[in-house]
Design goal:
Elements lengths: L1 H20 L2 E6 L2 E6 L3 H13 L2 E11 L2 H14 L5 E6 L2 E9 L2 H11 L7 E7 L6
Antiparallel strand pairs: 1-2, 3-5, 3-6, 4-5
């Protein structure tokens, strides 16, 4: 309880320092306004700590499971050449090198993409896995 209160207090202090101490620049050029906000590094560090502490689980599509690294690396490279926008991972889970693709939050998204690649990878299947955070613009 004491630690929770301390962390809450610490976060409030950091946020208040950031809000009241940020650099803002306003330029008015022909009715165009520009505001620049500088974010304190402490806030970014807290965000990274949060990401590390709380893993995000979703779905990926497993393309292959190989006993050595070389074939798995070739499969991953071929996938990346054809589907550049989709992340591909080579994961080692003893004794296999597995190639998994995508970071899907829902199973429905994974099923849709699985159907899209099934002609190239007919034996692919969906697995529940830890996925990467996507930075939303």
């Amino acid at each position: 309880m004491l630690l929770k209160n301390f962390l809450t207090f610490f976060l409030c202090v950091i946020v208040s320092i950031t809000v009241f101490g940020q650099d803002t620049t306003t330029t008015d050029t022909a009715n165009a306004k520009k505001v620049t906000i500088v974010i304190d590094k402490a806030i970014e560090n807290i965000n990274e700590t949060y990401k590390a502490a709380y893993k995000l689980y979703g779905y990926r599509i497993q393309l292959a499971s190989e006993s050595s690294s070389a074939p798995a690396r070739k499969i991953r490279a071929a996938f990346i050449q054809k589907y550049r926008e989709v992340p591909a991972y080579e994961i080692y889970q003893q004794p296999y090198f597995k190639v998994r693709v995508g970071d899907f939050k829902t199973k429905l998204e994974a099923i849709k993409f699985q159907k899209e690649i099934s002609s190239d990878y007919p034996n692919c299947y969906i697995v529940k896995d830890e996925i990467e955070f996507k930075k939303e613009n």
